[in-house]
Amino acid sequence: MSAKAGIERFWRRWHLIGAGVDNVWYYTREVLSCPSGRWLARGPNGTGKTTLLEGLCPFLLNPVHMHLSSASGRATSLVSLMKGGSTSKRRFGYVWLSFGPPGDPASGNADAGEQHYGLRLEYAASSNSVETVPFRLPVVPGHDGQDLSTMKRDDFCAWVAAQGGEIFASADTYVADLAQRIFGCTPGTLKRIARRIKKVRNPGLLAGLSPADAAAELRMALPTVSPDTVRSAQEALAAAEATRRRYERDAKTAQVLEDLSAAWSEAAAQTGLQAVDAALACTAVLAHAREEARLAGTDAEVRSQELGDLRVLILERTAAELQAGQHAAALARDAASSDVAHAHLTARQAQEAHEKDCELLTAHTRAAARCAADVQEAADAVTGLLEKAESSCRAARVPLPVAVPAVMSVRGGVPSPLRIGEQVFDQAPGLDVVVDEEAAGQAAEQLEQARVRIERHGEVAGMSVVAYQKVAAAQEEAVQARSLADAAAETARRASVRHQETLDGAQECVGDLAGGVQAWAQTVRERYRTPLMDLGRFFQII
Predict the structure, then answer these.
(1) Among 97, 129, 122, 125, which residue's Cα sits nearest to residue 15?
(2) Cis amide bond preceding 141, omega within 30
(3) Are the C-beta atoms of 130 and 4 separated by less than 8 Å?
(4) Residue 423, beta-bridge partner list
(5) pLDDT one-digit tens code per residue, 448-504
(6) 3-class SS of residue 262
(7) Tell me: the pLDDT tens digits for 190-200?
(8) CA-to-CA distance for 117 and 132, rounded, in angstroms?
(9) Which residues of 115-134 are buried (b: 16+ CB within 10 A; e: fewer)?
(10) How many helices (H) and strands (E) does the chain have?
């Protein structure tokens, strides 16, 4: 078949004009255009050329199996394609093939518009599966700028319907429409074509075969391909085999030369390394000898200095020993006299301190006895004041009974003498001063009630005088009664005043006495305390 006939045959039928991928594997959106029907993918290893081709053809011709690899050593699948390049739990992707209608587009004789057949892939991490939705579109998917990677299934179906496309219910319906519309054959024939393309794409199909055997395998895999095309492939394989053999001979020659160069280089390197090692060893020995000489000189200087220091130290030790011997002799002579004098001085100081302590103890004892007498006298004075208050109430004829409670009591005791060494000291007498505040309060309350009662009697007497004034017949007697009442009221008032003054004086005296006793006890504790006697334990104020 001539080249012209091949071109005319290409335009007389539906032909491949492109492909596309959107949000699948590490691809975001790629629209691959091939108007001539041929598409060449080139790039370094590992960039995804084979993976992209396995996801497009022949998988899109018969999307039945989830395993897309043509070779047994690969593991490409829809799940791996959708998991690669994404960590989201749900992902939407699209792959499609674009076909042009019969006729040259430049001449305007096309029978129908282009068609795009593909699959919508929906990956769910929860089930680790991919759900496919086959579709056909008269336009390139996403041509209007719609982001298909975020579009849910219902929205995508509505968008396809708006573009005049079709959503197929199953993969078989998709294959039947593609076989009838594009390839003009039955679905079974299209599936066989897909299997043969997958077989031809298998890298192990022609491995280890001669050009003639490889041509025979191609005729069996592609029976509809013309013999001229198979013969051209056989010639290309034969030329490639001859080239491969030349490359193998050249590779062996290069390997021999490389081994020879490596052996020569290794020998030269070994010789150079030996020379360098010898030079380094000599340099190290020389440096070590110089370092030892320097250290020996330094050590000699240090030893000479240490010898001089040792001589000076011997002279100093000799002088010190001589001086120590003289000092020891002097101490031996003065030891007896100095120890006796020191003992006499210590005894005299101890005797003087003992005498001072005895005098201080005697003074403190006498002061404590005087303080005890003062306390007893103050308590007697309080009792006398209370008796005077009782006498005043009796003189004023107070109708209420006024008792004299025991407001303050003093209990004393003479402790036994204190013996210190050969001397005997009198201890301060112990006193217990008891102030009954509740009894004093009750006495004051009784006196106050008596005062109020006397005032009320005076008021009653005044009212009686007013009443008697209205009686004309008893005017004289009323005058006399009034005089008597006035005299009684005056007497009651004076008694009440005296009673109040006596009560105030008694309360003030009691308060002053109690405060004085407490202050005296605190002063005695702070000022008259000696290591030999604690006066605080002889006094207690309740």
Answers:
(1) 97
(2) no
(3) no
(4) 420
(5) 777 787 778 777 767 765 665 665 666 777 678 778 878 877 887 887 788 788 778
(6) helix
(7) 999 888 888 77
(8) 13
(9) bbbbbbbbbeeeeeebebbb
(10) 10, 13
Contacts of 168 (CB under 8 A, 6+ apart): 134, 135, 136, 174, 177
Asked if pLDDT for residue 322 goes beyond 80, the answer is yes
Q: Which residues of 250-263 are buried (b: 16+ CB within 10 A; e: fewer)?
A: eeeeeeeeeeeeee
Q: Distance of CA 416 to CAs 6, 175, 376, 427, 487, Å? A: 150, 133, 20, 7, 62
Query: Pairing relation of β-strands 166-167 and 129-137?
Result: antiparallel
Widest pairwise Cα distance in the chain: 179
Helix or strand (DSSP H, E) at 156 = helix 153-162
| Identity at 506, one-letter amino acid code | A
Whole-angstrom distance, CA of residue 253 vs CA of residue 516 = 130
CB–CB of 383/439 below 8 Å? Answer: no
Strand pairing class (90-100; 423-425):
unpaired
What contacts 202, CB < 8 A, 6 or more positions away?
Answer: 70, 71
| Prediction pTM value | 0.44
* Three-state DSSP state, 18: strand
3 state SS of 91: strand
| The residue type at 321 | E
Query: What's the 3-state SS for 467-496?
Result: HHHCCCCCHHHHHHHHHHHHHHHHHHHHHH
Is-contact 396 454, C-beta < 8 A?
yes
CB 30 within 8 A of CB 53: no
Task: State both tokens at 250.
Answer: 């050249």
Q: Which two tokens stand for residue 319?
A: 């002088």
Over its C-alpha atoms, the chain yields an Rg (Å, rounded) of 68
Angle value at C-alpha 381, between 377 and 387, nearest 5 degrees: 145
Residue type, 188: G
Closest CA to 429 of 368, 378, 361: 368
pLDDT at 529: 59
The Cβ of residue 458 has, within 10 Å, a number of other Cβ atoms equal to 19
Q: What is the 3-state secondary structure (H, E, C) of 338-377?
A: HHHHHHHHHHHHHHHHHHHHHHHHHHHHHHHHHHHHHHHH
**385 in Cβ contact with 509 (< 8 Å):** yes
